Here is the input.
Amino acid sequence: MSADRPNANDGLSLQDFMPAGAGDTVAHAGKPLDPGAPLANKEAVIEAMKTVHDPEIPVNIYDLGLIYALDIAEDGSTQVQMTLTAPACPVAGQMPIDVANAVAGVDGIGEVTVELVWEPAWTKDRMSEEARLALDMW
Here is the structure.
């Protein structure tokens, strides 16, 4: 894997690859699918994202409402836009890498790009009913 495509195993954070003052963070994982390979469905990708948790919150990132967009192209390349509960989140550099690696692990997914965005700002209104129950946030 090249230096501009970090993954969770190389000990680097996304900030190591960001220009000074950059507002958004991007993580990459996976490799192109072979031509004609079957594509994953959106539900399989969502299930993979549900395996990623903020270590301080006992609810997965999908049910927390941190995933803003998911697009799987015809060639299997996948784009994800996500946010965090707060910009000062201590896992801000690692979380997009974890999501990229989880999504790239799904059969039928090629190259994955996860972009960390801050607009619109996350609110608890984005949480699923299951997340609200788990966190007692009614």
Notes: The beta strands are 25-29, 67-72, 78-82, 112-116.
